[in-house]
Amino acid sequence: MNEGYFVWMGVADLHLTRVSWSARFREPAVRGAQLLAVSGFALAQPLFDILGKNAEFFAARGSTPGDILLFALVVTFVPALGLLLVELGVGAVSRPAGYALHLGFLAFFGALFGVHALKRAGLNGTTALIAGAVVIGLAVALAVGRAAAARWFLTVLAAAPAVFLVVFLFGTPVQHLVFPNADARAAAAYVRHPTPVVFLLFDELPTITLEDENGNIDARRFPNFARLAQSSLWFRNMTTVSSNTTTAVPALLTGKLPAKGSLPVFQDHPNNLFTLLGRRYRMHVVETQTQLCPSRLCKRKRQKTGKRLSSLYSDARTVYLHLIAPPSLEERLPPIDESWADFGADTGKQLEEQAKLPKVNLKTFYIGRLHDFNRWLARLRAPGATPSLDYLHILFPHGPWLYFPSGQVRAVAVPRAPGRTEETWWNEGLAEQAWQRHLLQAGFTDKLLGRFIDKLHGTGLWNKALVVVTVDEGDSFRGGDSRRDPTRTNLGDIAFIPLFVKLPGQDQGRVVERHVTSVDVLPTIASVLGVKVQWKHDGRSALLDGPGSPTVKVGKFATSFSAAQALRQKARQRKLVLFGSGSWGPELAGTGRYRGLVGKPLGSLQIAGSVSASATIDAVGSKLVRSFPKRSQLIPSPLTGPVSGLHPGDAIAVALNGRIAAVSLVYRGPHFSALVPESAFRPGRNSVRAFLVSGSSSAPQLRELRVSFSS
Fold first, then answer.
1. CATH 1.20.1260 is right for the domain spanning 587-709
2. Class of the 197-297+309-584 domain?
3. What was the pLDDT predicted at 9?
4. What is the pLDDT of residue 16?
């Protein structure tokens, strides 16, 4: 054979080798593209959508640009790549098994996409959601397995996750965190009167919570707020400008109305209280949900990268589970609307060690908030040569509402109060019960305030410092209405928030009736310190004479001050009718028309036999009710669980140790939730009975249910 023949054969072999290698890699590439497509629609798109709209998720936790970029890349590519490697490993042993596994993965992602899509479409039933998701997942796998057009279409869709990634990084508020404004500059100022400043910011505390029937502070329920008012200026008609923490707090600290799209970080708010005083003051700052103080002024202990990323991924997983979980199961997840980070992360070990508590689910107490307060309080120092700015934003009495005024803690399987979907209360009785829990936690907040005042006295700051105590926003508890978003019915609850300003050396209190708003707080501080604010702001000092603003505006919702005041008075009257004032009495343990039964001994009531129905107390409540420790820090209240034989709306009364301890209404499920006071429990085994209540409120009829305990 001639030389040309051998050359031709060599070229042919090379071509065949290339074709062989191309064919070998084509199938894995196609499979990878298909996995990337379905994981993009099932995982990346839902997460990028919700987190892109809520960039505070990253801002509040102090995520770095690198953290966010890595997170986005992992969510986009790692699930598909990881599963592809698994199926290729299986395929190396058995090609049919590898392909079957590939179809199984497609079905799994298809089901995830399906349950999210069906839930967004309004389907709420657990069985229907799961069945619908399974059908969608099987349909995806069947189409890919049998139709070439479906395989081609799904392969083409592999470009979609890259689009989701680009939109997330460049088309949402997250871009301000990934590509921060390097030109952010703060305007510091000369301080004419360098007085120490102590700023304590509470969260979600409407003014009506503190008020009695005369519009004064209820001194029996809230003695320390009354004590503060006796030595300070109490601005009774203060209103917030926003119903969201991440916009309300920057307004307080900058004197500027919220700007659309701004995040609670220094880059978006370089001019704020911290930078205003940064040249002259020593900073002792603990922020919650915001990152307004620059690192050059406030030295934060940054978590190690691994721990920081672990927290980020853990919280993102919880967010995703909320997106796909049926409503009945979603209620058992850690709440994601009570804070921006560390969802349900507190372990409660300190409480367990201190009180030798029984082994129950302690991932519900959010005691990290209390530890933040204790550490901050311990670091308050007597005034020195260098003035200090001591600032704490603490999430009290912000939900979840787990504390009694005494400081005892609710032992509950689910920390979030039932009755609410996102920001809307869907059940009036449960909204009222949540309000009771809020009031009781506000009582504990008052106890913390008392410790704060005592510490100021002990350090000498009480007489020498400018002390500011205020709140970022209010809260509302009305069936069929929003918890925080302003409406024409709830504005009186959420708009008015307390503001106390104690001037240096002041020892006599005074009520100020002038209407002031959140943006007036920073100019007030500046006027006391003799500081000229160097940037354009929207507020003015609350110490100036003259009428206040004639308008109350919370977010985009605005009305006249007189109309808002009328709503506030109605809201206060509603609170007083439901829960009274003065003492923490039985009205804090009952809802519905039969709430008057609370506290009555069973021997004084008409019990008309039994009814074919039962109530089962959940595992946490069962454990503590049957063996309640002496001086327990944990209180199993509310007692909750499923009921059978009853219907939503039925009234149920729970008796402990021979006395009615709580009254509530059965809600959907059906379930019950009985808010038993801590005083109703006794050490050891507690006797529990439950009754269906009917008839008139003046002569109610009780029929006993069977009570069982979960193991």
1. no
2. alpha beta
3. 42
4. 41
